[in-house]
Design goal:
- There is one protein chain.
- The protein is an alpha+beta fold.
- It contains five helices and 13 strands.
- Strands 1-2-4-5-6-7-8-9-10-11-12-13 form a twelve-stranded antiparallel beta barrel.
- Strand 7 and strand 8 form a beta hairpin.
- Helix 3 crosses helix 5.
- It is elongated.
């Protein structure tokens, strides 16, 4: 198309210029012959990014998506959860309990190409900010086995920007903005009931902990700058994690050095599955930390941790400070 325009411009310079001006004026009032879903505007992708960035069960890090949703994602998160205090008895039932809390602040930024003509060659920026807080109770049936139901709320804001890098992108941009296809913002709320099953045991000084956690997400939008974007969906995740903590028997800066890590498999269902285009995420983690138990009031350990995660159509990694709290 570009070569043809150049040829006409050389042979009929005045007439060709007039025709191009008329074509630009006429086509700028029309939308490109593609669906807005190709521009990252479906509700399930908004919900997926909100859960990925705002929920503390998903891993932060650098993601590289493949498949039909090609994009590079950077997920920055700060948060976690844990038990408050020591378990206390529930009358004469033999069951003990203690409160649990969780919280997270996260930010997802992604850039991906538009892969369908006539807008191929342009890119889309998407960012999501999420904040979550919740709590519940953990019920101990013996020294090893416990069950923790909890409930949390998650606020998310997702913004999309269309980067017009080609002539076609610049031509169609005004109409796409007016129709709400691009350059939009949507605010969402998510309620997240969670059920966590935990079993922990030890061998000599090595501690093992297994968690099986089911999360249910119901997400709705309450404000949107685009008439096309109404988010109302449900998702689920089921994560199974095995963690090991290994004391190494020597000290650094007056604190015993521990190593360890975890492996987990997270099964995805519903809109999160559709938005990320995968039904599972695997994670392998390693850490090297200092034991602060008995030294600092609420810190169990602190050090460095690194994770690698992968799925059918993406992979990623994360490295950062590893902190475990004990309230």
């Amino acid at each position: 198309m570009k070569n043809s325009n150049r040829l006409v411009l050389r042979l009929h310079r005045g007439a060709a210029f007039g025709s191009l001006v008329w074509m630009a004026t006429a086509q700028a009032q029309t939308l490109p012959p593609i669906s807005p879903e190709r521009l990252w505007s479906e509700g399930d992708r908004i919900e997926a990014l909100t859960v990925l960035g705002g929920d503390n069960s998903a891993a932060g890090g650098a993601y590289s998506l493949r498949g039909s949703t090609r994009a590079d994602l950077q997920v920055d998160k700060f948060g976690g959860g844990g038990d408050l205090g020591d378990p206390r008895p529930m009358g004469d039932s033999g069951i003990r309990w203690n409160p649990v809390i969780s919280g997270n602040i996260g930010y997802v930024s992604a850039t991906g190409p538009v892969s369908q003509a006539p807008l191929d060659g342009n890119t889309i920026d998407v960012s999501t900010f999420g904040i979550q807080f919740g709590g519940g109770a953990r019920f101990w049936f013996n020294d090893h086995f416990s069950l923790a139901p909890s409930l949390s709320g998650l606020y998310g804001r997702t913004e999309q920007t269309f980067n017009a890098l080609t002539d076609a992108g610049k031509l169609y941009l005004p109409a796409m903005q007016q129709a709400g296809w691009v350059d939009w913002r949507v605010d969402t709320w998510t309620v997240v009931p969670t059920l966590d099953l935990q079993y922990q045991w030890s061998w000599k000084r090595v501690e093992f902990q297994f968690n099986s956690t089911f999360d249910y997400y119901h997400t709705e939008s309450f404000e949107s700058t685009s008439p096309l974007l109404v988010v109302n969906g449900n998702s689920q995740s089921w994560k199974n994690t095995l963690d090991v903590d290994i004391p190494l028997g020597f000290e650094l800066f007056g604190h015993e050095v521990h190593t360890g890590g975890f492996i987990d498999q997270n099964q995805l269902f519903g809109n999160v599955r559709e938005g990320l285009e995968t039904d599972h995420i695997y994670t392998v983690n390693g850490r090297l930390v200092l034991d602060f138990l008995g030294t600092w009031p609420i810190v169990r350990w602190m050090g460095l941790g690194a994770s690698y995660f992968w799925s059918a159509n993406f992979s990623g990694w994360a490295i950062g400070i590893d902190i475990k709290m004990k309230f």
